[in-house]
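Entry 14. Structure prediction run on the chain below.
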Amino acid sequence: MEQAAEQRGETAEKEGAAPNATGAVDLIEALRASVDRARSLKATGEKAAKAGIRGRSHMTHDELADALAHRR
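Output returned:
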């Protein structure tokens, strides 16, 4: 008779289980996303500066992108 995986000291994993089933946050992925957002904002700010858009320091990334889009 065949023993259950747990009895043999093996762990049984369900196929297709979500990697973050516990709800834990992947900190490395969160850091990468944060760095990407910062780089994107910096690049957009630099483009806005070259375009001569005023009030950049008080604008969000979306506001800067809109100002650039309407400037052209």
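The mean pLDDT is 81.
Filed with the rest of this week's runs.
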